[in-house]
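User: I'm new to structure prediction. If I give you an amino acid sequence, what do you actually give back? Let's try with this one:
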Amino acid sequence: MRFITGSPTLPSGGLRRLNPRLTVVRKDAEAPLAPDDFLPSVMTCANYLKLPEYSSPDVLRRQLRVALQEGQLSFLLS
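Assistant: Good question. You get back a string of structure tokens that encode the predicted 3D arrangement of the chain. For your 78 residues, that looks like this:
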């Protein structure tokens, strides 16, 4: 939860009570790199999870795992 919202816990009532609502949006790749070269990113103020258009579910899982492990306590502008 901290990765997407900046908070370590969900509000009382779970995802349904999250405000603003959790939204997944596509993150465009920047040439010459491919979508698989990018990690997911977030906008914690808007609860946006930004995902590149990965080539497979396995790439999605791998890149999301790296982003979650490495980005838990980071604050970067993207």
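You can read the tokens as a compact description of the fold. Here is one thing that stands out. The longest strand covers residues 23-26.
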